[in-house]
Design a protein that fits this description.
CATH topology of the domain at 104-165 and 235-289: Jelly Rolls
GO cellular component, one term: nucleus
CATH superfamily of the domain at 104-165 and 235-289: Cupin
Distance between the termini: 82 Å
Domain JmjN: 59-100
Structural class: alpha+beta
Radius of gyration: 35 Å
Protein name: JmjN domain-containing protein
Pfam family, one: JmjN
Biased composition (Low complexity): 1-17
């Protein structure tokens, strides 16, 4: 008679080791401070979004490898836990993927901005209401770029925000001499001119009824609709201007403000630019953006 042993096996079970979340390259908004793991991390050597539920570290920025980036949907699923805390994340594509993209200028030739939206920010004291006004207008890339290059719409240059702007706009203080000048000025003398007494002017002759009838009718200007040939000529001239613009357009440089280089957009300058944007929200001309347009 045999008895089956109920003694448990001493062989340790091989449970899978816990996988830690994908680690961000850095956090935007953390003022370049190397943040250690949270005190609630229980000795973990990696960062966990659950240890920072309010995302005080900043916005997580990821730099995937080409192998990770090939399965973009899978990569986004892995970093979704970070976005649930911070509300937004940034993914910087690998350089080999960016270099393999087709030329941008060839794609811009067929892009049209349909019904751009003008954003009105109303309010003050940190409480704003946004109103979007849709423009019934079709714009080409050239017309959109020319609009963005205007002073009331373009981004501020590096010399116009932060410490650069304060040092550039310093003006010598002038003493006010208005009060002293007012004290030294004597009483104003007004020359009295003699007035002539004029009798009642003669009554002008009354206009004829025909003149009254003509004056009562408003003069309306007739709007002449352009002919088909004129419309086709205008469209052809517009298309020629668009092609000429795209031939000279440099997508990576022409968007820059005056006296500003791409290398000027460091993390520190972007933070200053961000504060400048929020402090001037609602001031100046309302911003436009090409919503629901290809490539915008």
């Amino acid at each position: 008679m045999s008895f089956s042993s109920r003694t448990p096996s001493l062989t340790p079970s091989r449970s899978p080791s816990p996988t830690h979340p994908v680690q961000p390259d850095h956090f935007y908004g953390s003022e370049d401070i190397q943040l250690p793991p949270s005190p609630n991390s229980d000795g973990k050597t990696w960062l966990d979004p659950a240890d920072d539920p309010l995302a005080h570290r900043g916005i997580p920025v990821f730099k995937p490898t080409m192998e990770e980036f090939e399965d973009f949907e899978g990569y986004v699923s892995k970093i979704e836990c970070w976005g649930e805390r911070s509300g937004i994340v940034k993914i910087i594509p690998p350089k080999e993927w960016t270099d393999a993209l087709p030329p941008l200028k060839d794609q811009l030739d067929g892009v049209k901005i349909k019904s751009p939206i003008e954003q009105h920010m109303l309010g003050r004291g940190g409480l704003f209401r946004q109103e979007n006004m849709e423009k019934r207008k079709l714009m080409s890339v050239r017309e959109w770029a020319e609009l963005c290059a205007k002073d009331e719409f373009r981004a501020p240059a590096i010399s116009e925000v932060g410490l650069h702007a304060r040092s550039a706009n310093v003006k010598p203080r002038t003493l006010r001499k208005t009060k002293k000048k007012a004290d030294t000025v004597g009483p104003e003398l007004v020359k009295q001119e003699p007035t002539d007494t004029v009798l009642s002017p003669p009554t002008p002759p009354s206009p004829t009824p025909a003149v009254l009838e003509d004056e009562g009718k408003p003069k309306s200007k007739k709007r002449v609709a352009p002919t088909r040939e004129a419309r086709e000529a205008a469209l052809a001239g517009r298309a020629a201007h668009d092609r000429e613009f795209l031939d000279k357009f440099e997508p990576h440089e022409d968007w820059l403000p005056p006296d500003t280089k791409p290398s000027d957009y460091t993390r520190e300058f972007c933070q200053i630019l961000e504060r400048h944007f929020w402090r001037n929200l609602g001031l100046g001309k309302p911003a436009w953006y090409g919503a629901d347009s290809q490539g915008m």
